[in-house]
């Protein structure tokens, strides 16, 4: 199995889902603890939650392998996203609850990390780059929506209960300010709790590829899993309630940029 699965579209939107993968190679799985093999920190069923992307003619890139293999939303040099805050690394060795992922003496060394970068990280990011270049060449701009989810309570990373919808634009660096504000307004009116550039401001994908000066606009949405899951599984009723909100935000995203391009002609 390759590093990702890709669904091509012919519109200006690319949706990336870097943390929904669940695959572990037999070699890596044998090195993990029982807790590690549970892959509990997966962004469960986020790709299924966004099952309407064909309505937007969007392209969609979904990771196949678990974030415990390698975190595709981290820089390949392992640089911290949130200096001074607890976070997991490029090849995580502890889970979100702070428990070891690897059996004693089985953590990946520098050679193993390099191997995983070449096998999993680089192909995924090559595909993002290729698609954004293709989209921009066709439309004159490109849109990237980085789709995530997380448990509503993770004391290691934040206090209390996480808002339902957490929009991140690298504090305004990855897309136009008025675009971010419009998306946030939709989230606030939805009936779900929402925040813009709160605890989650966008990871490496949003920060690295978003470049509004070059007409590439990137947004991360981190969804609290209680908004679409129950008892550790996707809840059809909750997912169906949330999807119209997600559609409204993507409609605003694509419409805003289309209108901006027309105005600037």
Beta-strand percent range: 15-25%
Largest sheet descriptor: 7 strands, mixed
CATH topology term: Aminopeptidase
Low-confidence stretches: none
**Level of helix content?**
25-40%
Radius of gyration: 18 Å
Largest sheet: spatial strand order? 1-3-2-4-7-5-6
Order of helices and strands: EEHHHEHEEHEHEEEH
Task: Report what the structure shows.
This protein is α/β, with parallel strands linked by helices. The chain has helices spanning 26-31, 34-37, 46-49, 110-139, 177-189, 204-209, 236-263; strands spanning 4-7, 13-17, 59-63, 142-150, 165-168, 194-196, 216-224, 229-230, 233-234. Helix 5 (177-189) runs antiparallel to helix 7 (236-263). The mean pLDDT is 94.
SSE blueprint and pairings:
Elements: E1 4-7, E2 13-17, H1 26-31, H2 34-37, H3 46-49, E3 59-63, H4 110-139, E4 142-150, E5 165-168, H5 177-189, E6 194-196, H6 204-209, E7 216-224, E8 229-230, E9 233-234, H7 236-263
Parallel strand pairs: 2-3, 2-4, 4-7, 5-6
Antiparallel strand pairs: 1-3, 5-7, 8-9
Helix pairs in contact: 5-7
Short description:
The chain has 265 residues and is an alpha/beta fold.
């Amino acid at each position: 199995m390759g590093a990702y699965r890709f669904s091509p579209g012919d519109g200006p939107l690319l949706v990336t889902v870097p943390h929904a993968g669940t695959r572990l190679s037999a070699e890596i799985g044998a090195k993990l603890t029982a807790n590690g093999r549970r892959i509990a920190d997966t962004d469960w069923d986020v790709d299924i939650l966004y099952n309407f992307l064909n309505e937007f003619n969007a392209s969609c890139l979904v990771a196949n392998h678990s974030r415990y293999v390698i975190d595709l939303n981290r820089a390949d040099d392992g640089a911290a996203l949130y200096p001074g805050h607890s976070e997991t690394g490029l090849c995580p060795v502890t889970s979100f609850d702070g428990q070891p992922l690897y059996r004693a003496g089985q953590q990946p060394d520098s050679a193993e990390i390099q191997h995983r970068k070449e096998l999993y990280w680089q192909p995924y990011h090559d595909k993002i780059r290729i698609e954004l270049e293709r989209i921009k060449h066709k439309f004159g701009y490109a849109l990237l929506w980085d789709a995530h989810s997380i448990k509503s309570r993770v004391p290691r990373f934040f206090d209390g209960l996480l808002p339902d919808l957490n929009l991140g634009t690298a504090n305004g660096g990855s897309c136009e300010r008025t675009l971010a504000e419009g998306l946030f307004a939709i989230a606030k009116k939805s009936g779900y709790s929402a925040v813009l550039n709160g605890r989650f401001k966008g990871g490496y994908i949003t920060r690295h590829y978003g470049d509004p000066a070059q007409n590439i606009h990137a947004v991360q949405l981190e969804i609290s899993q209680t908004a679409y899951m129950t008892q550790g599984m996707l809840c059809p009723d909750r997912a169906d309630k949330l999807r119209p909100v997600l559609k409204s935000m993507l409609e605003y995203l694509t419409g805003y940029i289309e209108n901006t391009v027309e105005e600037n002609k």
